[in-house]
Design a protein that fits this description.
70% helix; 19 helices
Length: 461
Amino acid sequence: MSSANELKQTLRNRHIQMIALGGVIGAGLFIGSGSIISTAGPAAILSYLIGGLIVTLVMFMLGEMAARNPDSGSFSTYASGYLGEWAGYTVGWLYWFKWMITITIEALLLGAIIHDFLPVIPLWIASFAITLIVISTNIYSVKSFGEFEYWLSFTKVATIVIFLLLGISIIFGFQSEIPAPGLSNLGLDGGFMPNGMTPVLAGVMVVIFSLGGSEIAAVAAGESENPKKNVVRAIRSVVFRVLFFYIGSVLILIICLPWTDKESLQSPYVSLFNKAGFEYAAVAMKVVLFVSFMSVMNSGMYTASRMLCSLSQRGYAPAVFGNITSRGVPLNALGLSLFVCSAVLVAHFLSGADLFLALAKSSGAFVIIVWLFISFSHLAMRKRQRHQPSDEVGFKAWFSPYSNWLAIGTLSVVLLSQAINPASTFQFWFTLSITVIVIGSYTVLRNKPSFGVVKKGNGLV
């Protein structure tokens, strides 16, 4: 192990941007969009607009803090410095736990695709095998991981661009086999919002879960060649690219597919490609989904290991997880992440899917809590710096502090709406319970040197 215990700054700007995109564009877009449209109707676009606005505001808050102090601990480091040690400890562990759930979801989805193509391979073997493959891409060096993730994400982006071009050609009547839909689907069977506002708010939760991963840019920037410059570039470009891909492609789906066509919306992208006469659209889309899930899983494993490593180096986790190899890889942190994901997979296959699927739906709530911490940390930073000269980086969050309170209010409403929605009550109380347990563990362990949680300065201003 390297005695310096330092991560290597070998990622380039193109790696940073694609890593962040890789953590976002996955099942939430390719599959989740259809479920939102089928319940909220054309008003599903409001779910994406609300979620898109919030992610933009929150990521610009994170970008301003990261431009001052790029760090692999990212928002956990900032929460420690601006809100207190308990906040950094809490948000860091919740974020790591969130990725353990998400990585396992992706492993199961990937395993299902492999089993579908090769039925001779059992689902459980395929899921475990793909987890080991993803770990292997993270073990060698951060640069090799970045290059691997770059091409995975590039494939997804290319697919969405092709889809957008196809959708535009359908809307403007350039596809002779498909009549131009016009705006008729926007007022079909009940109008724009056929089921009221409740499914729209529920859709915001799914959108936030889908966009949870935008913050990876700030985490990865700490290992880039020019951290302060690259984090600003990454935050700006990733936010706008994600909004373009998500809102643009969902709007095309809403215009081109009736929201009452439940069968088509189960795989909306495949359905639209099929309508355009692409004979092997279903097979091709499965390949794209495979790449997408692999990319999200790959980015998630990277981010989770860096967060755990940062927690350890700041005294919030056992010191062994802060060790870094000579190639700049937090091997022990990766090992624990692999062990936990494998344990969750074992529990899933032994106990059945019902409990795990219920836990999986809580991922969006954990993302909301992380974003709330980011918003409050940024407020505290601005208050501390109100008498200081402007930052030389020149990157500022929009309309602060009003944007902070708008984000906090919206996120709180969406989170609390889970408590009164029978379909998500369990997820709300599960998320709240885990959060209370993590905060409680800090109060118990903070004074135990054997664990390593100690009061440390962080150098934030």
